[in-house]
Automatic annotation (TrEMBL):
InterPro entries reported for this sequence: Ferritin-like_SF, RNR-like
Signal sequence extent: 1-30
Keyword Signal among record annotations: yes
Keywords, in A-Z order: Signal
Full protein name: Lipoprotein
GO molecular function, one term: oxidoreductase activity
Length: 402
């Protein structure tokens, strides 16, 4: 039976709300898009654009692990001369191209133009949502390192070496599978995780510079520096586990290209968007996923690693919320506008599957802590709709003091 996370999600939300000084009585709904009355330009479908990217409730048993991965992609075109209702091929083609830029696409089986154009009067372009089904590997572990308009997070190339290994004594008693294929899946999982955790060190260096450039208080800077140290530890643990499973010489991270990825995007809008989508959503979902992995894992060594990661990721998510809270107090007009925009587009960010990192549909992999790719998608979806969106909406409605 699929391990469920609603209790984990609600417990996580409660912890964040308490830390932010919010109470359940102040929690408000996230709401929808802006009022569209009187704006009928280029509306080709009666489907509600605001909700057509939402996934249906899978029920108490959760999603079927044999289901295809589902991702909604929004694509936009110049709308200065109106929208072309006959441009379906160009629209779906652009969506596939965008997906290829964001994910490792193994196979695309179905592409459907779901709805559009967006009837929001504030949107000048012709925007559509496209549903893609297949086998994808999307998302990252830790905070992603992106540069400019890049869609694919940067990671360092791996090389043979042991400079990033945690002490091997930490993994004494590790239960190594007898099946070599299972060993390879686990080793690949932890190496890929290690690569992203390693890159997250640079991502938090970028956050530090953003906060400094915006005049943030010392507490946020100190927490960001602590998060960098956490990511170093996560990377070392991941490299160490990969090496402990065996099957190949130990690996370490090579040089990481950071040009344009650390010192750009210092403005408030970028910093807040990254805090919301990479921090509150990404690291919040990572917290719940790590807790769920720990629950299903019957190896005490690996379970302890997941629990440590979950503890750290929860602090990182809280740091993101605290950054938003500070910005809403220090820069209320601009910050409120950014948060409202993020609430409008958040459900699209919450439906894609997170990194697949190997198929975890069978019990052997699940017992080693791997969470199925479509289950990861649902954790992300639940994290946005059940945690991030209502907390952000409550922040907007509350008289915050930092």
């Amino acid at each position: 039976m699929t391990m469920q996370s609603p209790n984990l999600t609600q417990s996580f939300k409660a912890a964040i709300m308490v830390a932010l000084g919010l109470t359940a009585s102040t929690l408000v709904g996230a709401g929808g898009c802006a009022d569209r009355a009187g704006h009928a330009l280029c509306v080709d479908t009666e489907v509600d654009y605001a909700t057509c990217g939402d996934l249906p409730d899978p029920g108490p048993e959760g999603p079927d692990p044999n289901d295809l991965d589902v991702r909604f992609v929004e694509v936009c075109f110049d709308g200065s001369e109106g929208c072309d209702p006959c441009a379906a091929e160009a629209i779906t083609g652009a969506a596939v191209e965008r997906l290829n830029g964001q994910c490792e696409v193994v196979d695309i089986q179905h592409v459907t133009l779901t709805c559009g154009p967006d009837p929001d009067p504030t949107v000048e372009d012709c925007c559509y949502k496209v549903r893609l089904e297949g086998d994808f590997s999307c998302g990252v572990e830790g905070r992603p390192l992106l540069a400019g308009a890049e869609l694919t997070p940067r990671v360092a190339a791996l090389q043979t070496g042991d400079a990033w290994l945690a002490g091997t004594d930490r993994f004494e008693g590790l239960r190594r599978p007898q099946d070599p294929n299972t060993v390879e899946v686990l080793r690949t999982y932890w190496l890929r995780r290690a690569s992203y955790e390693h890159a997250s060190v640079a991502a938090f260096a970028r956050v530090s510079l953003q906060l400094l450039s915006l005049g943030a208080p010392a507490g946020l800077l100190r927490a960001t520096q602590e998060a960098m140290a956490d990511e170093v530890r996560h990377a070392r643990l991941s490299f160490g586990l990969a090496a402990s499973y065996g099957g190949a010489p130990p690996s370490e991270a090579g040089p990481l290209r950071i040009d344009g990825g650390v010192t750009t995007g210092m403005e408030l809008q970028t910093a807040l968007r990254e805090a919301i989508f990479d921090g509150a959503l990404g690291e919040g979902a990572a917290t719940i996923e790590a807790l769920e992995a720990a629950r299903s894992c019957d190896d005490p060594v690996v379970r302890d690693v997941f629990l440590r990661i979950a503890q750290d990721e929860q602090r990182h998510a809280l740091l993101a919320y605290q950054t938003v809270k500070w910005a809403l107090v220090a820069h209320p007009r601009r910050a409120r506008e950014v948060v409202r925009d993020c609430l409008r587009e958040g459900h699209l960010r919450a439906t894609p599957p997170a990194a697949e990192l190997g198929a975890a549909e069978d019990d052997a992999l699940r017992r080693h802590g791997l969470v199925a790719s479509n289950r990861r998608a649902w954790i992300r979806h639940e994290s946005w709709s059940g945690v991030v969106a209502p907390i952000l909406a409550t922040m907007l409605a509350s008289g915050l003091r930092y």
